[in-house]
Specification:
Blueprint lengths: L3 H4 L2 H18 L12 E2 L4 H26 L3 H12 L9 H5 L4 H23 L2 H21 E2 L2
Parallel strand pairs: 1-2
Helix pairs in contact: 2-3, 3-4, 4-6, 6-7
């Protein structure tokens, strides 16, 4: 019965997947708005800025992979991606402790909220019920949107 509502309407999952992708593309910092950008500029050494941008691109790719696995009904694989690429288990691989000292408090809080939300999502997805998993996924993306709305590195 797991995911049965979505199996009867396969187009719904694809539309949700594209909706999330479009939301992230819109929220990524762009050069066209730089002159009107009111977000706080977080100045980082060039190497750390590149590292942070690489991490964020990987976070976006991970969310995309999560959506693909959810679309296939493979919640365990979605949970694994969430925990090890976004969740609390990913902090060391992303160099979070080195990056945190350069971030304003609000940015650190948004990042921590995202990592905790990813770990909560992983637990929900492992339970096997798709609707609560999608709700938990929106907590991840909400933390991303909050950070991207308030801060920029370029």
């Amino acid at each position: 019965m797991r995911g049965a509502i979505w199996q009867s309407k396969p187009g719904i999952m694809s539309r949700i997947h594209y909706l999330f992708f479009a939301m992230f593309v819109i929220c990524l910092p762009g050069k066209t708005m730089a002159s009107n950008d009111v977000r706080a500029l977080v100045e980082l050494p060039q190497m750390m800025q590149e590292h942070m941008m690489s991490n964020m691109r990987d976070h976006l790719a991970a969310i995309n992979e999560i959506l693909v696995y959810l679309n296939k009904g493979e919640l365990d694989k979605a949970a694994e991606i969430a925990e090890y690429r976004l969740g609390m288990s990913s902090l060391e691989s992303h160099g979070a402790s080195h990056m945190a000292t350069f971030m304003p408090e609000g940015m650190r809080q948004a990042g921590t909220a995202m990592h905790k939300a990813a770990s909560r999502f992983a637990l929900k997805a492992q339970e096997g019920d798709i609707l609560p998993a999608y709700k938990a996924l929106s907590d991840i993306t909400s933390a991303c949107v909050a950070c991207h709305s308030g801060y920029r590195v370029r």
